[in-house]
Design brief:
A five-stranded parallel sheet has the order 2-1-3-4-5, sandwiched between helices. It is α/β, with parallel strands linked by helices and 214 residues long. Helix 2 packs parallel to helix 3, helix 4 packs across helix 6 and helix 8 crosses helix 9. The protein folds into two domains: 118 residues, Rossmann fold (3-Layer(aba) Sandwich), CATH 3.40.50; 77 residues, Winged helix-like DNA-binding domain superfamily/Winged helix DNA-binding domain (Arc Repressor Mutant, subunit A, Orthogonal Bundle). The chain is globular. It has ten helices and five strands. The longest helix is centred in the C-terminal third of the chain and has 15 residues. Strand 3, helix 3 and strand 4 form a beta-alpha-beta unit.
């Protein structure tokens, strides 16, 4: 089954370029486009894509605000931030809002395709630099609701960058069950994304900081 993608960017030429090279991959299907954050939210509600490729600097509503709404309303939809800036405020804002990944616009086409597939599979991928910044900045709950033993196992594997499929295989449970556990983990920790949950796992010593790197 192909991965359904919504492209959100205020530049028509960027949207065309993304559509052109992403549609060359048989595993990816572009289901819609949006020119600003508000339209991205509206289209995401209508189309329920697997992944939204989200520009962060857009008119009407920026990509960070749009990401927060999409992640809150559509937990099954992952958001991959795609931007021209690598500054702390953007990285931190995007991850706090619930983005699973953060890519720069000068990324190679095949690398972006890989990142989209990883996002759709629920894989957390952080570069060591981004992880270090986020560890300093993303505030995690002081006293989260206790996780069950199974949820802790799922969180540990998630933080190691494993996909839902890999977690399911490792724990001999169904992928649907993995998704349910992940939803429960996010709710208990009070976070919007797997990336934030992974950072929590590092902070709690469940995995070492190098384990979440791509």
């Amino acid at each position: 089954m192909s991965i359904r993608i919504l492209i959100a960017d205020d530049h028509a030429v960027v949207r065309q370029g993304l559509r052109m090279f992403l549609s060359l991959d048989p595993d990816l299907e572009i289901v819609g486009e949006a020119a600003d954050g508000a339209e991205a939210v509206q289209k995401a509600r209508e189309l329920k894509p697997d992944v939204v490729v989200m520009d962060l600097l857009m008119p009407v509503m920026d990509g960070i605000a749009a990401t927060a709404i999409i992640r809150r309303e559509l937990p099954e939809t992952e958001v991959l931030a795609l931007t021209s800036v690598l500054e702390d405020a953007s990285v931190i804002g995007a991850v706090k809002a619930g983005a699973i990944g953060y890519m720069l616009k000068d990324t190679q086409a095949d690398e972006l395709c890989r990142a989209i597939k990883a996002a759709a599979a629920g894989q957390v991928q952080l570069s060591p630099r981004a992880a270090a910044r986020l560890m300093r900045e993303v505030r995690l709950p002081d006293s989260p609701e206790a996780l069950t033993e199974r949820e802790t196992e799922v969180l540990r594997l998630l933080a190691q960058g494993r996909s839902n499929k890999e977690i399911a295989a490792a724990l001999t449970i169904g992928e649907k069950t993995v998704k349910t556990h992940v939803s429960n983990i996010l709710a208990k920790l009070g976070v919007q994304s797997r990336t934030q949950a992974a950072l929590y796992a590092v902070r709690m010593g469940l995995v070492n900081p190098g384990a979440t790197t791509a």
